[in-house]
Write a structure and sequence with these properties.
The chain is an alpha/beta fold and 966 residues long. It is 30% helix and 18% strand. It contains 27 helices and 39 strands. It is found in: Cytoplasm.
Length: 966
């Protein structure tokens, strides 16, 4: 905030000048302007904002402009990049700037604001992960009043008041900030003589100093911290200020120097699904209160973060299919699976306690038994509810919870009742409740309703889930550990959200991903795509509410498939695979465009191209049997699918009955895949809603439909294919992301990380950088073209790195899957020409993890399985059993359970020491412990490594990579 508060004087003020100055590099056709709350700055109408003028000063492009203001002027403002017609191309991220005139600013004196562009990364320290957890302190700073400076000190011509202003989000108690420079008033580089800054609130520090014309040009290369912990100084290039002293008038210059340039903070964490955690107290599955043990283990291991998979209720089908954590029944409700029934009440009778003890033994299995665990917990919870329902439902704490959450809680409880009553989540089977209305909802959940008690049970469960997760979340904060959640990209089509807000979803479509590392045929997740146009009408209220709810428990979150906010891979609802889709939004290929290129036969290009030769190649001698059952011959030697089996869903349905009567011995899965191949053998996909628009099929050149075309048609389609997938959409997708992502980021204080794996458009990473979204880097899936294995030492700071994730095999399994790939990795990354060992030994695991933890990334987050592989005792289990998800299988059973309890891991001092030594040796920060008591401090005291160099990324403790591995 520009408010010097320095000048005293009685002379009446009529008009004075405020000038703005900011360095910013633009491209041709781009301009900078200021838009703010005052009418002089456009009243937040960018079309009426103050357009700035560019000028070159050395190697910098400086944009500047000025306005004449009257006494008492104040305004909020921000900078915008616009095109020639003032359409917004980019804007600053973060808090709005504030401008107040200095007290006593007189006519003829100039206020200069020297600003720096605010990016999303500048706002990172103010996210709750840092503000409320990592940099959390037990002491608070009071705003200090700057010393006054009287007007007569500005009598000298060409003198200026400088306000030095720096943002420092973290400061240890008893530490001060100074600015040093070439001037005598800035200490001539001596800290003890430097200019001490005062705290101005909101993590900003400032100090004012009068400079004469002989002090310019002024060099002030750095700010520094000085206190009991010693001295730490900024890194980076020197700052320099030059002014035209020949004008003879005095001025006030506010130097907003952005964030203090410290060595970037780097931390580490562990990732594990909630259901996978094992403890001595759980009932066959991880529970929210187990997070306290996991946090204790994280602190012991030097980790600042615990990352989970989604924890929302997924009980759509009431069977093991619901183990899929990304298919939400409700994006607000927590999953009853994670409740600890023993903690529901302090007055559980002995017979129920005995039932819990017996059940604990029965459910203590190698993997999660999803159905048995959930059914058991709900059964026991109902017995406790029957005893104490009146007391709990009338309690003040429950009433507060209900009042705060009733907007989603009421329809959620009603949906659960209707699902169980009709024994299906398929709303078309619900009679008059098929379509949601508030009137019908209120009648169903009213106290007069016969089903009121059943509905209240769902309130009761959500209340206790909230209490238990809140307790674990607060415990993590106090221990200095960030709890990171997961935001799924979709919701189940039979969910509370699609029932209540059907207008927000395109129910005739399905969401997925084009072919990539995870699945060469593409993925079909089955979720309806979002109706972004409808969502925008209330400024994305559903998304904002969703993020607000997450922010009650988490201080960071992962955006699943962040590409979906740029564009989504949209499939027709009748598709089962993910191959024949299109991007939404996207610029289609029009019929006129195709005709201008000489392509006219649209039936040939869009219908499955099935010739006799292809049938013989696919089905051999059985081709005639298959053809007679599924196809019609419309032209000699060419076939088309019959009406009753011309979609993937129809084929899957007809195939079952066909195999029951046919003599074919081929498996249903293989036969279905071959029939799907026939159906997908097209060159273009026609838009089902706009028949004059077309999209090239992914991997078009792999189809015989393409290969049998004439050379001219092939060349045209190849060019259009490349243009559609890699060129024409970039601007549209960027614009789409800049409409939606800022709403998410502004809806909470959580630190946001985006899962940006797969086919990445070139616009994605610049937008993520601009918005302060932290990306993901997996070594086996490098984002750099031409690399088989990523190079962790070359990752950018705004990234999370990991050797594996829940969507791929563990490090141990990946090593043992492919002998040739293992050899290439051993040679290229580790540096050995010899044959690598067949097993992924703890030494190899240590080397790979060390590569990651020493990388420049903000975070290194390791799956728990990869950390356990550091010790041979934990590698006796077959590697296949450690897999969390198989993306190629839409009906995968998510049931992996860690084979050792958290209590045992806490007792394993050898493993925690090995991990903590890795973190310490990398220069990453870690939660501090009181060494005498052995207890972790409630207050985080890890310090950024200021003034020191990053650890070597190619050497460790003086050893080469080869020596270190040996």
């Amino acid at each position: 905030m520009a408010n010097l508060g320095l000048i005293s004087g009685d002379k009446p003020l009529m008009s004075r000048k405020v000038s703005f100055r900011i360095p910013y590099v633009t491209q041709w056709g781009q301009h900078l302007l200021i838009c703010g709350s005052d009418r002089l700055l456009g009243s937040w109408n960018v079309k009426k904002g103050l357009l700035l003028k560019p000028s070159h000063q050395g190697e910098e492009l400086i944009w500047s402009g000025s306005i004449q203001v009257t006494p008492g002027f104040q305004s909020e403002y921000n900078y915008y990049v616009v095109d020639d017609t003032r359409n917004i191309l980019r804007w600053e991220v973060g808090k709005k700037r504030k401008l107040l005139l200095p007290d006593g600013l007189q006519d003829g004196q100039l206020l200069e604001l020297h600003d720096l562009w605010q990016t999303g990364s500048d706002n990172i320290p103010f996210r709750s992960a840092f503000k409320d957890v990592i940099f959390r302190t037990s002491w608070s700073l009071g705003v200090e009043r700057p010393l006054g400076i009287t007007q007569n000190k500005l009598d000298q011509d060409g003198s200026a008041i400088l306000q030095f202003r720096i943002c420092c989000p973290y400061l240890e108690e008893g530490t001060s900030i100074y600015v040093l420079g070439s001037s005598l008033k800035l200490g001539q580089w001596k800290i003890q003589d430097g200019l001490k800054l005062a705290y101005a609130g909101d993590s900003f520090w400032q100090a004012d100093c009068i400079m004469g014309k002989d002090d310019f040009p002024l060099k002030y290369p750095f700010y520094c911290k000085y206190g009991k912990a010693g001295t730490s100084v900024e890194c980076g290039a020197s700052r320099e200020l030059s002014i035209d002293v020949t004008t003879g008038y005095s001025r006030f210059i506010v130097l907003s120097d952005g964030l203090m340039r410290e060595m970037p903070w780097r931390g580490a964490g562990v990732a594990v699904p909630m259901f996978s955690v094992r403890s001595e107290a759980d009932l066959g599955v991880g529970e929210f209160l187990d997070l306290k043990l996991l946090v204790d283990w994280a602190v012991e291991s030097g980790f600042h973060l615990v990352q989970l998979l989604p924890i929302n209720d997924t009980s759509v089908n009431c069977m093991w299919w619901d183990s899929y954590p990304y298919s939400s029944l409700s994006v607000f409700a927590l999953h009853p699976l994670y409740i600890r029934v023993e903690a529901i009440s302090e007055n559980i009778p002995e017979d129920i306690k005995q039932e819990i003890r017996e059940t604990r033994v029965q459910l203590d299995k190698k993997d999660v038994d999803y159905e048995a665990s959930l059914a058991t917990k709900l059964s026991i919870a109902k017995k406790i509810f029957a005893r104490e329902k009146e007391t709990v439902l009338k309690s003040k704490s429950f009433q507060e919870f209900f009042s705060e959450n009733q907007e989603w809680l009421k329809p959620y409880a009603a949906f659960c009742f209707l699902r169980d009553f009709f024994e299906t989540s398929e709303r078309s089977q619900w009679g008059r409740f098929s379509e949601f209305s508030k009137e019908k909802l209120e009648k169903l959940i009213s106290k007069e309703s016969l089903h009121y008690e059943v509905v209240c049970f769902h309130y009761y469960i959500q209340f206790h889930l909230h209490l238990q997760l809140s307790e674990a979340a607060e415990y993590a904060r106090k221990k200095g550990v960030v709890l990171k959640g997961d935001l799924p990209i979709g919701v189940d089509r039979n969910s509370v959200d699609t029932w209540v807000y059907p207008n927000l979803f395109r129910m005739n479509t399905s969401t997925g991903a084009p072919p990539d590392y995870f699945d060469k045929k593409g993925q079909n997740w089955g979720f309806p795509t979002y109706n972004w146009e409808e969502m925008s009408k209330d400024n994305y209220g559903w998304w904002r509410a969703r993020l607000t709810q997450m922010g009650k428990y988490f201080t960071a979150y992962r955006i699943d498939h962040v590409l979906g906010f740029f564009r989504i891979w949209e499939l027709p609802e009748h598709a089962l695979t993910g191959l024949c889709g299109k991007f939404r939004p996207s610029i289609s290929i029009s019929q006129e465009e195709l005709e201008s290129e000489g392509l006219w036969d649209f039936n040939r290009l869009t219908q499955p191209y099935i010739g006799k030769e292809l049938l013989q190649e696919k089905f051999g001698a059985s081709w005639t049997i298959v053809a007679s059952a599924f196809l019609n011959e419309y032209q000699k030697g060419f076939y088309e699918f019959k009406e009753e089996c011309n979609t993937e869903k129809k084929i899957a349905s007809v195939l079952k009955s066909f195999l029951e009567t046919s003599m074919l011995v081929e498996s249903e899965e293989k036969l279905r895949r071959k029939l799907f191949d026939l159906l997908q053998n097209v060159a273009l996909i026609k838009d089902p809603e706009e028949p004059r628009k077309f999209y090239p099929r992914f991997n078009i050149e792999d189809t015989t439909s393409f290969k049998d075309l004439d050379p001219h048609s092939q060349n045209v389609l190849k060019r259009l294919y490349y243009d559609y997938y890699f060129c024409r959409q970039e601007g549209l997708w960027r614009q789409n992301a800049l409409k939606t992502l800022p709403v998410l980021l502004d809806s909470s204080d959580m630190l946001a990380c985006g899962e940006d794996l797969g086919l990445i458009p070139s616009c994605v990473h610049p937008v993520m950088q601009e918005l302060g979204l932290v990306g993901l880097r997996i070594q086996r899936m490098p984002s750099e073209p031409g690399l088989e294995f990523g190079i962790p030492s070359q990752y950018g700071y705004m990234t999370v790195n990991a050797p594996s994730c829940h969507d791929c095999s563990t490090l141990r399994a990946w090593w043992e899957e492919d002998e040739e790939r293992r050899h290439r990795f051993f040679q290229a990354v580790i540096g050995y020409d010899e044959l690598p060992p067949d097993q992924c030994t703890p030494e190899i695991v240590h080397f790979v993890l060390r590569q990651h933890v020493e990388a420049p990334s903000m975070w290194s987050i390791f799956p728990l399985q990869d950390l356990l592989a550091l010790k041979g005792d934990y590698t006796t289990r077959p590697v296949i059993e450690e897999t969390i998800n198989d993306p190629t299988n839409p009906k995968h059973y998510w049931r992996y359970r860690v084979h050792v309890t958290m209590e045992s891991l806490l007792d394993d001092k050898d493993l925690t020491k090995t991990i903590k030594d890795l973190v310490r040796g990398s220069g990453r920060c870690y939660p501090q412990k009181d060494l005498e008591s052995g207890q972790a401090n409630d207050v985080e005291s890890a310090k950024p490594h200021l003034g020191s160099e990053l650890p070597s990324l190619t050497q460790t403790n003086g050893l080469s990579k080869k020596e270190a591995l040996v």
